[in-house]
Specification:
Layout (H helix, E strand, L loop, with lengths): L4 H20 L1 E6 L7 H16 L4 E6 L7 H10 L4 E5 H4 L18 H8 L2 H8 L6 E7 L4 E5 L14 E4 L3 H9 L3 E4 L5 H6 L5 E4 L1 H6 L8 E8 L3 E6 H4 L4 H35 L3 E3 L4 H6 L1 H7 L3 H11 L3
Parallel strand pairs: 1-2, 1-3, 6-7, 9-11
Antiparallel strand pairs: 3-10, 4-10, 5-8, 5-9
This protein binds (2R,3R)-2,3,4-trihydroxybutanoic acid.
Amino acid sequence: MVNIKPLLGLVCLLSLMSCDQLKSSKVIRLGHGLSTGHSVHQGMVYFGEQLEKISEGKFKVQIYPSQQLGTERQCLELLQIGSLDMTKVSAGVLENFSPSIKVFGIPYMFKDKEHTFRVLDGPIGDELLAGTEKYWLKGLGYYDSGSRSFYTIDRPVEQPNDLEGLKIRVMESQTAIDMVKSFGGSPTPISWGELYTALQQGVVDGAENNPPSFYLSRHYEVCKYYILDEHTVLPDVVLMSTHLWNTLNDQEQKWIQEAMDLSVIEQRRLWSVSEQESLEAVKAAGVQVSYPDKIPFAEMSKTVADQYAKDPLIKSFIDKIKNTQ
Ligand code: EAX
């Protein structure tokens, strides 16, 4: 007869070890609204891997994608009460919680990609992230989210006046509402997860987003016109609840920041690949993609900058961004 006792002993020992390891590692729960094919999700997976490595298994990251834990606004609220540890939201939604973030919602704020990253990765970006902390949201980094452009169901937008009277879905964001109004459109706030159905049922005539989100959400199946007017550059912001952050020691905070910085680099690399691929994919699927003269769009939406410049806080950030070379 085979003696299975030693084998049983080994099994017990292994299961005890894994329980023990699990007990000693803290699980960070991260919720967000995008699909797993998105560079944002992949950047987060990379963050988890890096954090686990750097912290030698003391931290693990559990990711909940696709609005499983709620809309971007709801995830931020969960962070504020400490019921969720981390999230990623668009700056458009974050502006409801931290007013200085509204500066990102102003159309044509940045000259080009280099200008954007000089701002985000420099003192202004740091200051804007630090500004969220008093709202129980510790900003950890900016993921690339490109720029946003209009897509429509029934007819193409060729110039800004074509938006007149069109119902355009926007995020839960006042600057986005004002931006669509500046073009004469009718802004309709709908959460990202509900948008496909809203487009399909004709609740709205169109929406606006960057190429990867347009593609991966499959909105291109319904919207056959995409005009790359690139009206806003709204970064995706990764945040941690201060209810968790403030309980961590210096070393643990450093690990998290280090892993996040690495994931920002990785996400931005994945982003540029997916931006190109997404544009090609929607074109191949029969979407008419156009590249308009952006000047008329910039001129028409200038009223948004004028309106927000009346607020001294936003004005100070507009000036700082404009003065960044
Ligand atoms: O944050 O809701 C949106 O349009 C956002 O771009 C998207 O969910 C990524």
